[in-house]
């Protein structure tokens, strides 16, 4: 594999690993609706189980010394032609601004592979997520070695206190303002110490290892840096939503979530054909 850029994001959350399993899936369905409209956004192609014989990944799913062989496989297409910075739109050939996301969710481990048909082997984003009941203190949960370990940068994300760009901020997505009484969580403390991550119970961490390769002469480092910055932004915004939406999915089961996902697939297809462009990137379309 090439000398990709690599970064490990650690997102600490005030909930259990079991609760996050439901909350992540519920929030992905909701967030997909928020990102879809006006011809842009998320198209769900496949959402079905995988095992050793069906929809299996090319390489084994291994993290924290464990091997995972069953779970849920999804294939999504993100239509992004109006949701990228202007300098990319000027350079990108027509039809190239679609990305394919294939994910094998063998919770508590998940591997997500993002590719582009135009770029082929010259572009990929691989996100390996492991969800663990600690406050982000495990040093090498992805069992890295060699170059990947030596070049990895660790970034800890504080969903309560990290700065959110004004264009992303909504008070209803602010964990310092929004409690979850059904879940037994009050507003998170608004301070810069991050001490809440050491004191809150239950607590868990999403360890998200991101590898980025973008081979394009003159743009490689700029694009890899841009992608990693956007991943950090998305992780912060999404997990603030997961925390604030806790009471919406409180008490839900995985069976409930699968029914929601089936309905969401239909809703997204309709929504993508109608209405205005929505979402995180919509306000950035003229960024340089």
Automatic annotation (TrEMBL):
Domain annotation Phosphatidylinositol transfer protein N-terminal: ranges: 6-266
Pfam families: IP_trans
Region (Disordered): 264-288
InterPro entries for the chain: PI_transfer, PI_transfer_N, START-like_dom_sf
Domain of life: Eukaryota
Residue ranges with Basic and acidic residues bias: 264-276
Cross-referenced PANTHER family: PHOSPHATIDYLINOSITOL TRANSFER PROTEIN (PTHR10658), VIBRATOR, ISOFORM B (PTHR10658:SF11)
Record-given protein name: Phosphatidylinositol transfer protein alpha isoform
Organism per entry: Aplysia californica
Native organism taxonomy: Eukaryota, Metazoa, Spiralia, Lophotrochozoa, Mollusca
Primary gene name: LOC101846308
């Amino acid at each position: 594999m090439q000398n990709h850029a690599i970064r490990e994001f650690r997102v600490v959350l005030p909930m259990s690993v079991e609760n996050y399993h439901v909350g992540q899936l519920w929030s992905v369905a909701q967030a997909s609706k928020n990102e879809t409209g006006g011809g842009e956004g998320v198209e769900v192609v496949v959402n079905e189980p995988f095992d050793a014989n069906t929809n299996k990944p090319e390489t084994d799913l291994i993290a924290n010394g464990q091997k995972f062989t069953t779970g849920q496989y999804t294939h999504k297409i993100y239509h992004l032609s109006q949701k990228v910075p202007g300098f990319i739109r000027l350079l990108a050939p027509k039809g190239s601004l679609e990305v394919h996301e294939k994910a094998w969710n063998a919770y508590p481990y998940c591997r997500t592979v993002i590719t582009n048909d135009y770029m082929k082997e010259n572009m990929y984003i691989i996100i390996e997520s492991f969800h663990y009941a600690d406050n982000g203190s495990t040093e090498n949960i992805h069992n890295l070695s060699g170059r990947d370990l030596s070049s990895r940068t660790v970034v800890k994300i504080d969903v309560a206190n990290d700065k959110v760009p004004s264009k992303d901020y909504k008070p209803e997505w602010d964990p310092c303002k929004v409690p979850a009484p059904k879940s037994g969580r009050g507003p998170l403390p608004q301070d810069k110490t991050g001490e809440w991550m050491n004191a809150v119970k239950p607590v868990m961490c999403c360890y998200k290892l991101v590898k980025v390769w973008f081979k394009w002469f003159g743009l490689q480092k700029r694009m890899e840096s841009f992608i990693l910055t956007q991943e950090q932004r998305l992780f912060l915004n999404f997990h603030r939503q997961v925390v604030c939406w806790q009471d919406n999915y409180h008490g839900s089961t995985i069976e409930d979530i699968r029914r929601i996902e089936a309905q969401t697939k239909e809703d997204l297809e309709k929504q993508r054909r109608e209405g205005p462009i929505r979402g995180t990137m919509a306000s950035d379309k003229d960024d340089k």
